[in-house]
Amino acid sequence: MDKPFHARNISLIKATFFLLAILPLFLTKSMGDEPTAYEILERYNFPIGILPKGVTGYDLEESTGKFSAYLNGSCSFSIEGSYKLSYQPTIKGYISQGKLSSLQGIKVKWLFLWFDIIEVYRNGDVLEFSFGIASGEFSIDNFEECPECGCGFSCSSNPFSSKTRRNEFGICSY
């Protein structure tokens, strides 16, 4: 037996109010209130350019600093002549103020050998990269822009290569 017209209207009104009450929660989440991976780097005193353009997402346990960052696929490019960087589709490690540790998923090629980058420290205006038994230092100015897979920081096809912007998805784009 059908509910009387009045009872159906009250049920409909209750359902509408419920949807109106929870809808802003979904819209806020989808409109980008969550910080991007690049913004998280900045919060921990790192430049955005230590991650390549195109991070599709990340996970962060703020209590421990454990993180994962996700790319569409593998990414590699050359920097400062004799170095080549390679990123796996998933980069993992721990983040704290001015320090990335226990890194997995980033390698550097120096001369003819590949080394895992296991730690990155910020020391003033210098980033120190530790790859096992050796380390390298680079000015933080080198990481103001996000590198692009394939061509790194010097993409000649890009007329805006000196400008870094973030779109609504938080992806470094030019």
From TrEMBL:
InterPro entries for the chain: At5g01610-like, DUF538
Listed SUPFAM superfamilies: At5g01610-like
Gene3D superfamilies registered for this protein in UniProt: At5g01610-like (2.30.240.10)
Cited Pfam families: DUF538
Signal peptide as annotated in the record: 1-32
Signal recorded as keyword: yes
Entry keywords, A to Z: Signal
Protein name in the entry: Uncharacterized protein At5g01610-like
Gene expressing this chain: LOC140036449
